[in-house]
Amino acid sequence: MSVETKTEVNVQQAVPFFNVSDMEQSLRFYQDGLGFTMKYKWIDEGKLRWCWLELGNAALMLQEYRTEGHNPWKPEGKVGVGVSVCLMCRDALSIYRESRSRGLEPRKPFVGNALWVVNFKDPDGYVICFESPTDVPEETEYTE
Fold it and tell me: What are the DSSP calls for 104-138, one per residue?
């Protein structure tokens, strides 16, 4: 006699955590430029130190690192170099157009691996990619 056991999915979401050098500059990029909204925040000594941002079903966390005082940290280089996060969406090109209307200058969209790819580099060098499925030929570049 076999007994079937139903198990619930334990892991629910991956949320990138970015150390940032200037919280205000990062929020201008993520909120004002890309349209993320702040869901949670931590204010320490009157200053926003950490926040959880959401855009649709995607989320990320930002924390401004301290270079002095309690728990100081100084990165050896630019913190975002080599880090890319890909956000799958229905229409990456709409993200491209909306972000440009808000003053951002993303790289020109292109098709790679059957996906429209729209890349942004945040103020600390993290690469945020918005991607959406397409049947447009590989290596096609978007033209307005």
Answer: --PPPPEEETTEEEEEEE-TTS-EEEEEEE--SPT
